[in-house]
Amino acid sequence: MKNDPKELLDRAKQSNRVSLAKLLSITERGGEKALQLTKLAFYQQKDSYLVGITGAPGAGKSTLANGLITEVRKRALEVAVLAVDPSSPFSGGAILGDRVRMQGHSSDSGVYIRSMATRGHLGGLALAVPDAARVLSAVGFPYVLLETVGVGQVEVEIVESADTTIVVVTPGWGDSVQANKAGLMEIADIFVINKADRDGVRDTRRDIETMLEMSDKNSWIPPVIESVASKGDGVDEVFEAVCSHRNYLQESGQGLKIKEIRLVNELKKIVEAQIDMRIDQVLSDPKFHLQQQKLMQGEIDPYTLATELVGLLFQN
Ligand SMILES: Nc1nc2c(ncn2[C@@H]2O[C@H](COP(=O)(O)OP(=O)(O)O)[C@@H](O)[C@H]2O)c(=O)[nH]1
Ligand SMILES: [Mg+2]
User: Fold this and answer.
1) Both 303 and 213 in a single domain?
2) Ligand 1 near 165 CB (within 6 A)
3) How far is 96 from 107, CA to CA, in rounded Å?
4) Cα separation of 61 and 46, whole Å?
5) Any atom of ligand 1 within 6 Å of the Cβ of 194
6) Per-chain residues with Cβ under 5 A from ion ligand 2
7) pLDDT value at position 219?
8) 279 is in which domain, residue-wise?
9) Does the Cβ of 101 fall within 6 Å of ligand 1?
10) What is the per-residue pLDDT for 187?
11) Residue 73 pLDDT
């Protein structure tokens, strides 16, 4: 079969990018085929490192990703970039701009850049992103960069699946305060003050360092690195920090702990998504419609009805 996940995966492993694109579209769309692919990819995962890049729009995430691609390529390793836009169900203009920012690598067959949006995937991006990352891992990319557009709860949830998370801010008060409010400070393993060619770098650094002092971080203290990504300045230092953090995770055993927490979280989300679907099924059953009318007329209270509903959920 032409679009069979197994065959596509085999071909993608032989550097067939058209097959890889089809695989990621399957993941995006969700459904039975996506499930089949997710299972296959899980068992075929390789040692792949996932680096999340997050921060406000315009901070320079794509430009930094472009520089990081160069760093990985210097080491003769292949790299994939997933650009995720939670605010848009379809790949919007922001992502188009991202591609332009990374255009320098468009003729390099060792670089794969892909934007992703939620379509039908059960559980939304929070589940679709780790699934896509696993497909890229199974295909054999040793590095995957995950760029999220925007600052919010969904972004936090998405980069939670990354091994190392880079939070990009720009000079000036606004950014770092916004990042703090959005909960990005807590998930940052590395801070990058990009656009360090602008005024206010020292104040921003002070902001971040103060916030770091107030948080009870474990033994890893996130470095604060200044960069001018558009010129490539400081990008090598960012990549070195990623490598240091990777070493730290491995040597401290923290990496394994995080992996466990992440997998259990993912499992929980999958179960929740399945139960949600089941609730919708039960609610749309004509039998239940009658009960709903009773609820409306005050003949049954919502708690009693809920107990009935829970009973129905687990009847195959
Ligand atoms: N002055 C300056 N501009 C930069 C720097 N890095 C990126 N830019 C520019 O900032 C704009 C937004 O960058 P982009 O990477 O698309 O940001 P993203 O939305 O976070 O992905 C682009 O016009 C970049 O060329 C920098 O270090 N200094
Ligand atoms: Mg971008």
Assistant:
1) no
2) no
3) 17
4) 26
5) yes
6) 61-62, 98
7) 84
8) 266-313
9) yes
10) 86
11) 96
